[in-house]
Amino acid sequence: LIQAHPIFHNNSNNPQLPVAVQLAIFLNGVGHYGNAATTEDISDWAGVSVGTIYNCYKRVMIAILQLHDRAIHFDPLDREDQIERERAKAYVEQKTCREWRGGFLCVDGTPSPLHEKPSWHSEGFFDKNSDYSLTAQVVIFPHNLHIVDYVIGVPRSLHNSNVFAQTRVSRHPESFFGAGEWLWADSAYAAQIWCVPPYKQPAGGSLMAEQRTFNYNLSTVSISTNILSSSSPSV
What we know:
Number of strands: 5
Structural class: alpha/beta
Order of helices and strands: HHHHHEEEHHEEH
Strand order of the largest sheet: 3-2-1-4-5
Distance between the termini: 26 Å
């Protein structure tokens, strides 16, 4: 997808590395953190100069960002998105029951621990796990983990529901959901007509059997989002 991008083609007397090699350098860099991700280490690994490493990072990022709207989108009037929505509904129905097929999206927060304590406003990045981290909110189709909306770069100290309020789904739910359609969430999110979280255990009490059954079946749909959340590397 990025092979033909003009960033990889110029009239210089010094030809660029093949696009596949530049992509491999980029992926190796973003796949590591800390000392293993320094430009010097990547330079030694790839056998090229530090300047070339910087150029590869820059070119690949420019090319990837150009593909953003092709990769992350949802338009209920778009034929391809309509097909994916029906596939998601079929997946939910197969996992649960026909009455639940209207819940064709899932949302969850994805933490990204920072390699070191930030120099500025570090307390804002300190989270409940005693780490310094960022968080992202991702809204996905449960059947293929395709991201349709997100918020990134927010300090983890901010509650999931507050971060979620910044997504397009939360601000404009009518652009995503029709009658009888909604997304699945975990207990950190507020229940709305288009957002269905599990039942919370009452203070000093316990859930009824029907509520436990509801929560169990909801987890069979939203577990895909949890898998995506747990895969975020440190930055």
